[in-house]
Design a protein that fits this description.
- By secondary structure, the chain is α/β, with parallel strands linked by helices.
- It is 33% helix and 27% strand.
- It has helices at 45-53, 75-81, 97-102, 117-129, 145-159, 175-190, 202-208, 226-229, 232-239; strands spanning 7-16, 19-29, 34-38, 60-65, 68-69, 82-85, 163-167, 194-198, 211-216, 219-224, 243-247, 253-257.
- The strands form 3 sheets. The chain has a 6-stranded mixed beta sheet, with helices on both faces. A 4-stranded antiparallel beta sheet has the order 2-1-4-5, with helices on one face. It has a two-stranded antiparallel sheet with strand order 11-12.
- Helix 4 crosses helix 5 (145-159).
């Protein structure tokens, strides 16, 4: 018997104020899979991630984690299983980088709430993987936007989740650190976790994700391999643009938007 999807969204609808953001959205993410979630600004990508981690309860629909409804799981269970890297993270206090990364271990702490050797080791490994171990003692408020984002990603990696939700995780990063972050995500997924990644970088998404899901008009317009989803017709329907789709030497699609009239 095959394992259930790591994440399953069925008929998800969300209304924020007077705006219907999601309407009947359905998407599965399998264990050991990276799915890229693409769509124009305001399409509902961040809202879908908030629903997927339980921060937002949908008005309709079912969200399941490993075959069990998310609403049946305690906050601690969800926190152990799901890590979210939001678009922006604001810190009200000058926490050190290592303190920020150790926050990812909070769901795994015992009843006394003290970190142990395993927690410090997980934090140190996550920082080393992203090349920010030298920043461990620095205040997070003193960091550049890119360095702060790396600390937030390291926090999620230290959490050791089964499902990683990333909302534009590489938006503030240079090319080297983009590849570094996505490489660590791929390693986590290769070990059995899953990832749902929001991105506006179509070229990186095509090379990083096992499947691409296009979100438009509150629902999933198309889902499949990048070569099947990143087509002129679907890009027109989802982004409202005319684009040529070329092939790189390695076979991956390259989207070249045409100038707006």
């Amino acid at each position: 018997m095959s394992a259930p999807p790591r994440l399953s969204l069925t008929g998800v609808a969300v209304k924020l104020g007077a705006r219907q953001v999601l309407r009947g959205a359905a998407l599965d993410v399998a264990p050991g899979e990276i799915v890229g979630l693409l769509g124009r600004n305001g399409a509902g990508k961040s809202t879908l991630l908030r629903v997927a981690c339980g921060l937002l309860v949908p008005d309709a629909g079912i969200v399941q984690l490993d075959g069990r409804p998310l609403v049946e799981r305690s906050r601690r269970e969800r926190a152990r299983a799901v890590a979210l890297v939001p678009q922006e993270t604001h810190f009200p206090f000058p926490f050190s980088v290592v303190e920020v990364v150790l926050m990812g271990r909070t769901p795994h702490l015992g009843w006394l709430g003290f970190e142990g050797r395993r927690d410090f080791a997980a934090a140190q490994t996550a920082m080393a993987q992203l090349g920010i171990d030298a920043l461990a003692a620095r205040s997070v408020l003193s960091l550049s936007g890119g360095e702060r984002q790396l600390a937030v990603v390291a926090r999620a990696l230290a959490q050791q989740p089964r499902l990683l939700l990333l909302d534009e995780p590489t938006a503030f990063l240079d090319l080297r650190h983009r590849l570094q972050v996505l490489g660590r995500v791929r390693e986590l997924v290769a070990a059995g976790a899953s990832a749902l990644v929001v991105s506006h970088d179509l070229a990186v998404a095509a090379r990083t994700c096992d499947r691409i899901a296009l979100l438009a008009d509150g629902g999933i317009l198309a889902v499949g391999p990048a070569s099947a989803v990143l087509t002129p017709a679907l890009l027109r329907a989802s982004f409202g643009i005319e684009a040529d789709v070329l092939r790189a030497p390695d076979g991956y699609p390259i989207v070249v938007p045409r100038a707006l009239a």
